[in-house]
Recover the amino acids of this structure.
């Protein structure tokens, strides 16, 4: 044994900690720059956003957000002067560019679609997933391993490959470009994740709890409802957030299977254009609003993240 | 004492009676719980898959639903395997998958190895590093188009600042030789944290006493790294490679928004080719055959890889 060391012989030295810390902080700062740039761009005016060299210090403006939520038409200065005083901040900002607000843009309805489809499919996936996970965890299901692998394998298919027959099927059933169609599809994609994650969580709850409850006279169903579900709340919540993030971020199916009424935000945001090209501050504003919920969820989830991204294969 | 009594009573109760008392039998409940999921997957995944298999033998075109559908047998498959463009797309995909996985594994493992030193504030900085992978690849990929703009983009500016090349000449997305790297950079930026997180779990799973024993044997740090750290973290690294490999083989959203497969077809990965054939040229039968080939390829490779992974785990 080493003679003098009072602490663990394998603990990293202070120098190596300092070097490691410096490199990690540097990487973290560089990797976060694109996100900070999105945030900053959303508060720039269109001319500031395309200035060379790129402006780090600038006069903040809400023009990007105004443009995101509205459609505008160009008018002559005489016409604008003939109008009454500006009715709000956006009205004022837009008039400075010789334009008037013509109406609301499609961003809000697309954002609401994203909310409906993400929450709807998450609820269905977690509901089905909890039942199946309990079934697989507690009962002897014939061919259980094969069924579980089958459930997982549905997620290996390239989305475009799935989209071709789904496109035809939805056209026949009248489900194309409907929220219901998208909820069904996202539920099917997410249920595999939900089953695998929740099975891991339920496996960790000792069977003795239900057995005790059943001895006290509960039926299996009551025991599931009164003892397993309350114990699994954390796992169910974490699973729900993972499903929500997937449905929220999904692009391929949404871009191919929706075009109007049921379109979600991800295929919509890239189509935001201003006069003469992409209106980057408005795109950045839409991106910021779209990303903020995910940032919050990532921080809430950080302890469960590893489990979620590996389908429960790696647990801490 | 009470429990034991209840237990013996439960055991003494005849089977059919116990079942009646407890409502549905366990077997019935198991199927009641599992079947909705299986039915949903059969309807939304398996039925369409079989439909796609059927279509892959025909000349069906989704934009001409009233035309008579002819059965072509294996003609679609033969044409795909002989199609030069398909092979180029497969090469582009292989290039993309190879480099993204290599970079992500190297950088991700190094980051995990450094974070494992548990310096002050490592939990906070780890969370910061994890943020990019949680975001929508489509929405973020779209914004990278702005960062890549030749003159006004931040990326071009930063590169010209470091290298001295004029910012107007750094056009990542429209230059034929740079475009494939532009998608590799964004993918690496997004998904290195993913590999890092799994590697970190691997490093933390190595029990400390092994290092203590190595220290007793006076093994050098170098030797400890190659004989303990790397082999013991290897199953985790391989798992990360498996997940990233499958995901990047299917890659669509980020590439579609960043380059759309261009310039020309230099960044046309398999999914983009599939989308162009299926939803732009409307060759539904032909693209279904390609989809089936891709699916079999992912499935086959993943299966082989999982077998290798299990072998490493058992060692």
């Amino acid at each position: 044994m080493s003679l003098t060391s009072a602490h663990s012989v394998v603990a990293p030295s202070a120098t190596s900690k300092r070097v490691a810390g410096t490199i990690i902080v540097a990487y973290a700062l560089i990797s976060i720059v694109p996100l900070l740039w999105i945030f900053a761009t959303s508060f720039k005016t269109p001319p500031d956003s395309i200035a060379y060299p790129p402006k780090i210090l600038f006069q903040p403006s809400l023009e990007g957000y105004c443009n995101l939520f509205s459609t505008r038409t160009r008018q002559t200065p005489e016409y604008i002067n003939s109008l009454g005083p500006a009715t709000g901040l956006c009205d004022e900002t837009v008039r400075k560019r010789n334009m008037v607000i013509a109406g609301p843009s499609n961003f809000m309805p697309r954002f609401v679609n994203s909310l409906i489809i993400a929450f709807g499919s998450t609820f269905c996936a977690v509901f089905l997933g909890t039942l199946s996970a309990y079934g697989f965890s507690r009962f002897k299901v014939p061919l259980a391993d094969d069924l579980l692998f089958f459930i997982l394998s549905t997620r290996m298919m390239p989305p475009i490959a799935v989209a071709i027959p789904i496109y035809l099927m939805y056209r026949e059933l009248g489900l194309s470009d409907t929220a219901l169609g998208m909820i069904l599809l996202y539920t099917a994609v997410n249920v595999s994740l939900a089953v695998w994650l929740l099975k891991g969580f339920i496996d960790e709850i000792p069977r003795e709890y239900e057995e005790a409850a059943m001895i006290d006279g509960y039926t299996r169903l009551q025991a599931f409802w009164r003892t397993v579900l309350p114990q699994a709340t954390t796992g169910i919540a974490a699973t729900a957030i993972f499903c929500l993030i997937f449905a929220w971020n999904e692009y391929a199916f949404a871009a191919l299977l929706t075009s109007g009424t049921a379109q979600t935000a991800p295929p919509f945001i890239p189509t935001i254009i201003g006069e003469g090209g992409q209106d980057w501050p408005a795109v950045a504003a839409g991106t910021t609003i779209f990303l903020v919920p995910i940032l919050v969820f990532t921080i809430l989830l950080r302890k469960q993240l590893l489990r979620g991204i590996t389908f429960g294969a790696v647990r801490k | 004492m009470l429990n034991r009594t209840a237990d013996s009573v439960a055991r003494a109760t005849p089977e059919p009676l116990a079942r009646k008392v407890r409502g549905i039998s366990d077997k019935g409940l198991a199927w009641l719980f599992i079947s909705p999921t299986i039915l949903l997957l059969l309807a939304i995944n398996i039925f369409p898959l079989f439909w796609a298999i059927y279509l892959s033998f025909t000349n069906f075109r989704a934009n001409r639903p009233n035309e008579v559908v002819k059965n072509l047998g294996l003609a679609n498959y033969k044409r795909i395997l002989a199609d030069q463009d398909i092979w180029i797309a497969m090469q582009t995909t292989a290039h993309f998958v190879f480099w993204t996985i290599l970079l992500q594994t190297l950088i991700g493992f190094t980051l995990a190895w450094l974070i494992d030193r548990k310096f002050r504030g490592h939990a906070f900085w780890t969370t910061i590093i994890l943020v990019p992978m949680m975001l929508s690849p489509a929405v973020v990929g779209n914004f990278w188009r702005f960062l890549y703009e030749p003159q006004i983009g931040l990326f071009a500016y930063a590169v010209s600042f470091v290298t001295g090349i004029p910012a107007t000449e750094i056009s990542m997305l429209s230059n034929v030789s740079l475009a494939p790297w532009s998608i590799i950079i964004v993918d690496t930026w997004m998904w290195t944290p993913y590999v890092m997180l799994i590697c970190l779990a691997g490093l933390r799973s190595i029990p400390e006493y092994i290092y203590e024993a190595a220290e007793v044997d006076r093994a050098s740090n170098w030797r400890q790294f190659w004989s303990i750290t790397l082999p013991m973290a290897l199953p985790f690294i391989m798992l990360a490679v498996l997940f990233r490999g499958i995901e990047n083989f299917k890659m669509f959203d980020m590439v579609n928004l960043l380059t759309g497969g261009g310039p020309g077809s230099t960044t046309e990965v398999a999914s983009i080719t599939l989308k162009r054939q299926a939803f732009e040229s409307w060759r539904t039968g032909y693209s279904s055959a390609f989809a089936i080939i891709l699916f079999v390829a992912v499935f086959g490779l993943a299966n082989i890889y999982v077998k290798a992974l299990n072998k490493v785990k058992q060692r």
